[in-house]
Amino acid sequence: MSRPIVLSGPSGAGKSTMLKKLFEEFPDTFGFSVSSTTRKPREGEVNGVDYNFATVEEFQQMIKDDKFIEWAQFSGNYYGTTVASVKQVSDSGKRCILDIDMQGVKAVKKTDLNARFLFVAPPSVESLRERLTGRGTETPESLQKRLDAATAEMEYAETGAHDKVIVNDVLEDAYAQFKEFILAE
Ligand SMILES: Nc1ncnc2c1ncn2[C@@H]1O[C@H](COP(=O)(O)OP(=O)(O)OP(=O)(O)O)[C@@H](O)[C@H]1O
After folding, report:
1. Per the structure, how many domains does the chain have?
2. Is the separation of the CB atoms in 132 and 143 below 8 Å?
C-alpha cells in the first residue's frame, strides 16, 4: 500500500504541467479518488466509478461526520473528496495523488491517511504573474485573486508544513525532482 501524495502550490506554479508529464510517462501507476456529488447521474455514468452519487441529506450528514477532505458547492450541487475514496485507491495498489489547496492540505493533516506532502513553488510571485497571464485563462480580477492566494500558500509552505518543496524554475529540473519524490517509497 502506497501513501497518498498531496500536491499543492499556487495556481500557475506548474502542478498540472508536471502531472501531465508524469501520467504520460507512467500511465498505469496512478489511481484517482472518486468524488462524491449530489448532482444527478448523467446518461451512462456509473455510481462508484464516475462519482459516488448522494442525496443532499446524505451529503450534509457526511459533512457533519467529517467524512470529507474537502467539499464545495458549484451551481447548486455539492462536490467533495472523502477520506474513504482516497483509501480505496491506496488499497488497490495504485498511487493516489491529490491536487488540493492549502485548506485541503490542512484537512488531510487531520486524517489518518498518512500522506506525503509536496509543494510546488514558482521562482517568484512576479514569474507567477507572467505565467498566469501567458496561460491566458485569467481576468484582471481572477489574476489578483490567485496572486493573493499564492502569497498565503507560500507563507504556509515557509512554516515547514510539507515534506518537500520544489521550485519550478527550469521545468525539466523541477520535473526530475517531482518524479523522484512521487515515485519514492
Ligand atoms: N518551468 C516553467 N517555466 C515556464 N513556464 C512554465 C513552467 N512550468 C509551467 N509553466 C507554464 O506556466 C503556466 C501555469 O502552469 P500550470 O497550468 O501547470 O499551473 P498549475 O499550478 O497547475 O495551476 P492551476 O492550479 O491553476 O491549475 C502554464 O502556461 C505552463 O505552461
Report:
1. 2
2. yes
